[in-house]
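Aim 2 progress. For Glyoxylate reductase (NADP(+)), the working sequence is reproduced below.
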Amino acid sequence: MGLRAARLPVLLNQLGDRPGSGFDRFRDRVSVVAGDRDGVAPWETGGAEILFTGPSPAWSRAPLKAPAEWGDGPRWVQIASAGVDGFPQWLLRDRLVTCGRGDAAVPIAEYVLTALLLHEKRIDTLRPQGPASWLETARRFRDDPAQGTLEGRTLGLFGFGRIGHAIAARAAAFGMRVLALRRGAWTESVPGVEPASSLAQLIAEADHLVLAAPLTPETRGVIDAAALSGAKPGQHLVNIARGALIDQEALLHALDSGRPAFATLDVTDPEPLPEGHPFYTHPRIRLTPHICWSGPFVREQFAVRAIENLERYLDGRPLCGVVDPVSGY
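Predicted structure tokens for this construct:
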């Protein structure tokens, strides 16, 4: 038995109990060893063939070149997030890497629609304190020219993966026009979704512009002063992707000039922002601490995906959520 166990592939699990009890049925096929993604050097895998890990401050401080401890590295890395920009490039090369693409699409889409509705309906600003203020609040709300609607508004999606699809489906239910820009070619038409020809068109026509693209060298800082200068008057910018998609100084200047009119930001660069950063108090920014992905079933969905991928890997079948090392997602 000892020799047989020694020949089992080793899986280094740096995700604690996130995979749940799924490893139990693979006891005779893989040897699971506990690790720590928050440790000093999470890339020290001890020769493990498989690595389950996720973003962490330690990984964000990884050296630019693969350290000697990485050696040949694992043959397969399963990452517990959709984005892989928090990992060094050398982790993505010369091995199979899979991610949690789509696991949080539903809660992120719900966050976006919540942000859109709050911006249009403004009910979060209503605080009647008694009968008199009740009537006055109702009057001001009824007569407020800024009160809007989602019906007939144009939703611009920068990025149209699983998250973009989930947002579009929910926006369509509110009668919104959906305009989307994606990196790859449109191989098929999506009912209710119009392909945008350029970022400039998207920014010029969107009442609500949602950033849902991965962070890559091509998208870093893509929402800059030039892009923002073409924003449709009254536009609401929503970022649920990565903070570094936006030139934050340019956004501050643009908000002060009124185009865009407002921004809902769940992500920033860095996270958290330093003490005293103007995003914390700017009257035209709603800031949330990178929680758009959270939901009651996200961890469960990841566990199902990871365990299914483990079975596929051990059986020699194609895996789900494979990351392209060239495109970076």
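The longest strand covers residues 154-158. This observation will guide construct design in the next reporting period.
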